[in-house]
């Protein structure tokens, strides 16, 4: 399930209003974390987003390759694809640009994804402690960009969707993961075909076009329900970034 909001963040009091229907977990995961590589320059990207997020919400869905997750506010962990592109290793002092000017962190961990993947669709991911992620990526404490919700026993996906929508009000559009599955899988298929054929990158253009219709609803914040794994979740996040930038 995911939420469409008129705001870019969700406050803690709002998430607490749905605890009788599901178990919400606030997540920080937003575009705009630019890592400074070993050459002193921002690691470039062509198409895929540069996410910054909180380590606790990501820890259960990634595979640590080296080191550990950040536990202190001056520490970060990054995905393996970004580490390779940046030419950095665990123990390095690394600069990161976000909503705030450049800050320096100790790189304490490098992680990958199931299946031996170094990234999800080429996205760069930098993870911080939760308070630092909230401040640097959202600009204020105690707020979240996404909310993951797992239904309590006795509540199915459609019931959870309807009850959360009623609790959140008209400012939000709420859909189950199944409602958005077609968008994710079709666009993921186009990206896979583009990679297989090689040549000019074109897959993001259809995604932009499809995303325009969704973008009018606002900035996406979504919640996962039981039964949807990392692949669908991360692809959804990347597709939502493409939609928001269309």
Q: What does this protein structure show overall?
A:
The chain has 246 residues and is α+β, with helices and mostly antiparallel strands. The chain has two domains: 2-28 and 145-245, no CATH class; 30-138. It has eight helices and 15 strands. It has helices at residues 12-16, 55-58, 80-86, 130-138, 157-168, 177-197, 204-215, 230-245, and strands at 2-5, 10-11, 22-27, 29-31, 34-35, 50-54, 63-67, 75-79, 93-97, 103-112, 124-128, 143-144, 146-151, 172-175, 219-222. A hairpin with a 5-residue loop joins strand 9 (93-97) and strand 10 (103-112). The two termini are 22 Å apart.
Q: Topology of this protein?
A:
Elements lengths: L1 E4 L4 E2 H5 L5 E6 L1 E3 L2 E2 L14 E5 H4 L4 E5 L7 E5 H7 L6 E5 L5 E10 L11 E5 L1 H9 L4 E2 L1 E6 L5 H12 L3 E4 L1 H21 L6 H12 L3 E4 L7 H16 L1
Parallel strand pairs: 6-11, 8-10
Antiparallel strand pairs: 1-14, 1-15, 2-12, 3-13, 4-6, 5-9, 7-10, 8-11, 9-10
Helix pairs in contact: 6-7, 6-8, 7-8
Poorly predicted runs: 1-9, 210-235
Treating each run of at least 4 consecutive H or I residues as one helix, how many helices? 8
Count of domain modules: 2
End-to-end distance, in Å? 22 Å
> What structural class do you assign from the helix and strand content?
alpha+beta
How much helicity do the residues have? 25-40%
The dominant shape is globular
**Order of secondary-structure elements:** EEHEEEEHEEHEEEHEEHEHHEH
């Amino acid at each position: 399930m995911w939420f469409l909001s008129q705001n870019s963040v969700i406050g803690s009091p709002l998430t607490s209003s749905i605890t009788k229907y599901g178990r919400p977990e606030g997540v920080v995961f937003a575009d705009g974390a630019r890592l400074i590589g070993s050459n002193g320059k921002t690691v470039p990207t062509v198409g895929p987003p540069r996410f910054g997020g909180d380590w606790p919400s990501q820890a259960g869905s990634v595979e640590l390759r080296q080191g550990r997750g950040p536990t202190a506010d001056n520490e970060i962990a990054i995905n393996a694809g970004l580490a390779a592109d940046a030419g950095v290793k665990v123990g390095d002092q690394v600069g990161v640009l976000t909503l705030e000017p450049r800050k320096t962190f100790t790189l304490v961990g490098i992680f990958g994804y199931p299946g031996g993947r170094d990234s999800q669709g080429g996205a760069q991911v930098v993870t911080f402690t939760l308070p630092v992620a909230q401040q640097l990526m959202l600009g204020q404490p105690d707020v979240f960009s996404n909310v993951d919700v797992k239904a309590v026993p006795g509540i199915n996906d459609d019931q959870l969707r309807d009850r959360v929508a009623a609790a959140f009000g008209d400012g939000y559009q709420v859909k189950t993961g199944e409602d958005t599955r077609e968008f994710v899988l079709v666009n993921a298929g186009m990206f896979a075909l583009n990679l297989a054929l090689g040549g000019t990158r074109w897959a993001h253009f259809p995604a932009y076009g499809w995303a325009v219709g969704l973008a009018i609803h606002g900035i996406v914040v979504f919640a996962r329900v039981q039964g949807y794994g990392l692949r669908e979740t991360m692809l959804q996040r990347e597709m939502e970034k493409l939609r928001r930038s269309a």
